[in-house]
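Researcher: I need the complex structure. Ligand is beta-D-fucofuranose. Inputs:
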Amino acid sequence: MKLKTTLLAGAIAFAPLTAFAADLTIGFSQIGSESGWRAAETTVTKQEAERRGIDLKFADAQQKQENQIKAIRSFIAQGVDAILLAPVVATGWDEVLEEAQDAEIPVVLLDRTVDAPDDLYLTAVTSDLVHEGKVAGEWLAGAVGDDKCRIVELQGTTGSSPAIDRKTGFEQGIAGNDNLEIVRSQTGDFTRSQGKVVMESFLKAEGGENICALYAHNDDMAVGAIQAIKEAGLKPGEDIKIVAIDAVPDAHLAIANGEMNATIELTPNMAGPALDALEAYLANGTVPPKWIQTESRLFTSADDNQAIYEQKKDLGY
Ligand code: GYE
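Model: Output:
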């Protein structure tokens, strides 16, 4: 049910947040389960809602924007108190976000952003996606030194903000290093299966001996590519350096085994900051900043990746 927060004459009704949260109903439009990281985000979001006593209405869009738009319209019809949205692509949201605004239902974006006026959403909880790509590029530049390095790139879902921004950031990271060149770049849609298929095509087109490094917009595509590199008779992490993003358990395991070189961590807990902001807004009218940034941390073979794998492997990935 929708809770109206009423402004009392000269005062705002204050309620203890935890007690208040127990009455909230929140709709969550999730993209799907394309990667281990996405699965972990879903697990953590459900845990964060349960911990707060929030009634979470979960909708899996199977990677389709039209399913996300349908789910948002259903949440509006149900009169939820707020909506969480992980937008599969960056464009095409204005109309449905305006419908949520007209219904006075705040929307919080998780892990991806939208190309829409920012008054159409309360806040976005994301990492700095450009920075992640730049850190990956700078790491590779440092790893190869002055050696010539022909790079292949596995992009995320076409039109998604991480695919756009992580590409931009990586190019910034390698800028000025004329010995580094991206020779092939294609989407693997953030999945292991497509990462393997596209890497196979890169190896066939370029010849494995002519590829120095792989930059993948997420670890799942990198893990798929590792299989393709092995099947081509090459040593991933040695013959072809590999850097990606998410820091899922299997990436830490690959680095520990010398089959991958670096990953940048993306927390799956976007829901914690999102629900904190929503509770404060709905209970006290506290308006959050338009962007709540989550941390990004580089992991390399210098870290104890086996131990980190053991810590992360049961967290819902
Ligand atoms: O890196 C990937 C997932 O939106 C930033 O989406 C997120 C990305 C994440 O498929 O694993």
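Model: Summary of the prediction. Confidence is low (pLDDT under 50) at residues 1-15.
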